[in-house]
């Protein structure tokens, strides 16, 4: 195994569906552009407006499976039984080695897969759980988006209950009551890890 020297630990950001992980991360990046967020690879087709290397790395299934077999991903998943998704390992290691604050925003299953793989790779990770102020508020946010049918909403709420129960698996919990406060709290965690000014 190669020796890895990391100036800071990888920040893994997770939490239940509709909690606002992406919104908190976007606010953090707007305030602190020095933070690097990992770009996932996928075998699904690019949607209109999506840019290769910005939104995702778009790969053929053959290419993805070859990279997966070669151990080039930190974690992988098959979503909805169709598309493959994965976190390319090399950019994560390169940014960590350079002392650049590095974030991976991922679902609960992905966070668990990172935990399994991190020990093999001698990768130090801080697991951050973004929580809603309450389950009722999470329900309100999910139904307020208006992007899913009532059946889909019910399924996602059941998933969210399971995801909320996993909070104890994480090192830090940040309650997303306001995006600004949650992003500031996330920055405090990163600043402490990387020895930066909070």
Your description of this structure?
The chain is α/β, with parallel strands linked by helices. It has one domain: P-loop containing nucleotide triphosphate hydrolases (Rossmann fold, 3-Layer(aba) Sandwich). It contains seven helices and nine strands. A five-stranded parallel β-sheet has the order 2-7-1-8-9, with helices on both faces. Strands 4-3-6-5 form a four-stranded mixed β-sheet. A hairpin with a 3-residue loop joins strand 5 and strand 6. The termini are far apart.
Which terms summarize this structure?
single chain; 198 residues; alpha/beta; Rossmann fold; five-stranded parallel sheet; four-stranded mixed sheet
How is the secondary structure organized here?
Blueprint: E1 10-14, H1 21-31, E2 36-37, E3 41-42, E4 57-58, H2 61-69, E5 73-79, E6 83-88, H3 89-97, E7 102-105, H4 108-121, E8 125-131, H5 135-145, H6 150-164, E9 172-175, H7 179-194
Parallel strand pairs: 1-7, 1-8, 2-7, 3-4, 8-9
Antiparallel strand pairs: 3-6, 5-6
Pfam families: Guanylate_kin (PF00625)
EC number: 2.7.4.8
Domain Guanylate kinase-like: 8-191
CATH architecture: 3-Layer(aba) Sandwich
Number of helices: 7
Number of strands: 9
N/C terminus separation: 35 Å
What structural class do the secondary elements suggest? alpha/beta
**Mean pLDDT, all residues:** 92
Strand content: 15-25%
Helix content, binned percent: 40-55%
Strand order of the largest sheet: 2-7-1-8-9
Are there runs of 5+ residues with pLDDT below 50, and where?
1-6
CATH class descriptor name: Alpha Beta
**Outline, from the CA principal axes?**
globular
Secondary-structure element string: EHEEEHEEHEHEHHEH
CATH superfamily: P-loop containing nucleotide triphosphate hydrolases
CATH topology: Rossmann fold
Largest sheet: 5 strands, parallel
Instruction: Evaluate the radius of gyration.
Output: 17 Å
């Amino acid at each position: 195994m190669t020796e890895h020297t990391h100036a800071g630990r990888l920040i893994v950001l997770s939490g239940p569906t509709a909690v606002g992980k992406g919104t908190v991360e976007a606010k953090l990046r707007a305030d602190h552009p020095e933070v690097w967020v990992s770009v996932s690879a996928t075998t699904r087709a690019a949607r209109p407006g999506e840019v290769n290397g910005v939104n995702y790395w778009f790969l053929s299934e053959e290419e993805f499976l070859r990279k997966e077999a070669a151990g080039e991903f930190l974690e992988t998943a098959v979503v909805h039984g169709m598309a493959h998704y994965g976190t390319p390992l090399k950019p994560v290691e390169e940014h960590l080695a350079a002392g650049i604050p590095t974030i991976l925003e991922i679902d609960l299953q992905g966070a668990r897969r990172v935990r399994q793989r991190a020990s093999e790779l001698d990768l130090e990770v801080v697991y951050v759980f973004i929580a809603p102020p309450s389950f009722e508020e999470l329900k309100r946010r999910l139904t307020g988006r208006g992007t899913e049918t009532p059946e889909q909403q019910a399924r996602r709420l059941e998933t969210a209950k399971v995801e909320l129960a996993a909070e104890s698996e994480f090192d830090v919990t940040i309650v997303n009551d306001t995006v600004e406060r949650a992003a500031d709290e996330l920055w405090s965690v990163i600043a402490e890890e990387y020895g930066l000014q909070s």
